[in-house]
Amino acid sequence: MASQELNHETNIGVHFIKIILQTSLQQGKLRVPISFVRRHWKGITNPVTLRLPNSTEKKVSWEKTSDYDVWFCNGWREFANYLSLSDLQILVFQYQGNSLFSVIGFGKCGLEIKYPLNETSEKAEEVEESDCSLKIIEETPLLRGKRSKSSSRSSKIRKKIKIIPNEQKEYKYEKRKVQEHPRFPNFKDMDIGSSSDDLKERSRDLHEKVKKKFKSDKDFFTSMIHKTYIERDILGIPIEFAKTHLYRMEGRNAILFVDQERTWNVDLKIGANNQYKLVDGWSKFCADNNLKLGDVCVFILNKCKGTISFQVVIFSLEKDMKTPYFQGNSSKLY
User: Fold this and answer.
1) Which of 74, 124, 143, 273 has the smallest C-beta neighbourhood within 10 Å, fewest atoms?
2) Integer Cα distance of 56 and 230 in angstroms
3) Which residues of 118-153 are buried (b: 16+ CB within 10 A; e: fewer)?
4) How do beta strands 48-51 and 100-106 pair?
5) Shortest CA distance to 14 belongs to which of 128, 127, 101?
6) Cα angle 101, 114, 188; round to 5
7) pLDDT, tens digit (0-9, with 9 covering 90-100), for 248-271
8) Are 44 and 3 in contact (CB under 8 A)?
9) pLDDT for 113-165, tens place per residue?
């Protein structure tokens, strides 16, 4: 099936970064950051071409498992093997138009890797790995463009980069280092493909699907489980929902249940900005039902003779995105 070509010139030159994880190498697949797919993927044909600084080009196919979930698949393992990629190395992708991406690789110390020799390439860059410093012998065509006078004067660049064990901090750290590097003068549109960013995008995507497809003959609200709700004994209730359905009910006890076999008691309190919240029991509900960051919950309100209860329908980020519930229009009514 033919795809239309990308017509938006603003997409050309946009970057995204992926830190290579062992699972990607084992599975032979690499996920493209959801934020990049959402904003820039329209019109990119299958397969794409990945071009390295040594002028080597590799064809890699991609597959889409949901609206914004795109993976490099057939050809990716061969590309990774060609570069001898290992865990926690970094790849920077820059879209060049016509389904072509330029790719630069960086080692664990944050310095550009040495590419396999290619007869048609210009001189390869030499990496002095003994002290984690980088010496550029000759500039490659990748990302060549206008440079400031300060960066063009430097033909030898020496950097020492501290390795940060925590994965999330490492992504932020590498982003800053790449942005500061003279070889990347215009990174304002850079898209970081970190696991943290991907999780947020996938969670938002799941939340939107739930809000669009979930049906009930009772009043309900939806909530995306974020860090505060996992770490603290609190869950915020949307202000408009509370104003309409929970007015003057603060201070009461409420009951949470997933099915009729077990219930959890929580307190309904009101905090800053008149926002209602579930406390004193929410964290136990979280733990007992194994709620995780990024999951989405639907709270279906039941009011009977002064008592308040919520049936909680849990959508797991890792499981429910691929269930039949989200494949087409759901007719299930709670």
Assistant:
1) 273
2) 46
3) eeebeebbebeeeebbbebeebbebbeeeeeeeeee
4) parallel
5) 101
6) 40
7) 888 888 999 998 889 999 999 987
8) yes
9) 888 876 444 443 443 333 333 343 444 444 444 444 434 433 333 333 344 34
